[in-house]
Amino acid sequence: MKKQTRRAKRPLRIPPPPGFGPLPFSMGVFAGDTFYTGGHIGLDSQTKQVPAEPEKEIHLLLRSFRATLERAGLSMNDLVFVQVFCSDVSLFEQFNAIYAAYFGTTFPARAFIGSGPLLFNARFEMQGIAVHVSGRGDATKRSVQGKHAR
Q: Which of 27, 64, 78, 80 gives 14 a disulfide partner, CB atoms 3.0 to 4.6 angstroms apart?
């Protein structure tokens, strides 16, 4: 019988945003070749506020999320699952239009969940799971598109 080795969790050490003290969580953790991100919101780093315009918030959120993946040696195309919490689901189409531009042609599985209020009055919070595959740039993954997929 083949002996299985246990891989330790490796947190990604990212300092908290300026003006915030130590936070009791990690922005991401590797467990083997799988990377789990913490929740990200679209805060302006200068004002520590969510922008008034949803479009700006979405871009800040996705840039922050991408930067976390890049610090872990991954890209948006390595994501296999994303979960988005949204305090105003009428912004679904607006979010999708911007979100799609941050990916190639294959999207991760995703849940878009209506929520109550989010921290700092954010409209969106996003977390995800990415898989690092050795010996290539982006993860090779297949997407199963339902007949109703957009």
A: 27
